[in-house]
User: What shape does this take?
Amino acid sequence: MAMRRIAALCLLVGSVGCVEQPSENAGGEAFFIAGGPIARAGQPLPQPQRPTQPGIEMPAAPAASDLPSQAAPGEDYSTHAADPESTPVQPEAGGASPPPVATEPAATPDPSTPDVVEEPAAEPPMSTGPGMLTVRFTSVSPGGRYAPRNIGAIWIETGSGQFVKTLKRWAGIRANDLRAWPAASGGWSSFFGIGATADELDAVTAATLRNHEAHEVMWDMMDNDGQVVPDGTYRVQIEVAESASSSSSAAVEFDKGATPVDLAPSDQGPYSGLTISYQP
Assistant: This one.
């Protein structure tokens, strides 16, 4: 009887807090009290209803769109939660303000520290001795009036065109038919080729050649004063003539230094098969 009274009380009050309790009626059937309504055994349990009271409005359940969501992998978290480091700290009521964040001052250059000075580019190695230059070629006819009889000269100039020394000259009274060599050396101005130059006694001289032939000269890298010339760029000048109007000349540069040089330029003008070899 007591259980029946409790069930009736739950129905009147509509309390959600009533717990399921088994009971028996006069016919022996089992009943359950679940949130107020009574259900027979084997039948679906009715859903409990929220109790309502006059003048009291129950808040609605929040929509799914209003619930906070977690950021998907790779998504910007700044759209879901504020950055705690960027959010200023508010002092608590009645409490002291948080200490200011210390910042390091910008570094100032030390005047006592010298500036880094770039080292100049390394200079090419210098030669350790005078060295030796060897020039070989065969003269070529420029098509002059007295061909194949020919005259010619071989001399050295600096890279800027300054005369250094005559290595060989083959010419007699027809020396004036040469054009480039007299202009460079400043010699042999007489009509019969009788004259003088600073290197007159040092150059290897010969008379006019009857035919074109092979020539070979060597230079010990000394000037007319017997001093070894400094390292740098030099020119080997070659001139061949068969008459006053048939002079042909050409120049080939080489570098004197610590590195050997072997040149074989293509044939041109007064020579063919030219080779220039320098050994430090």
Notes: The mean pLDDT is 74. The two ends are 132 Å apart (CA to CA). Residues 2-13 form the longest helix (12 residues). The longest strand covers residues 232-241.
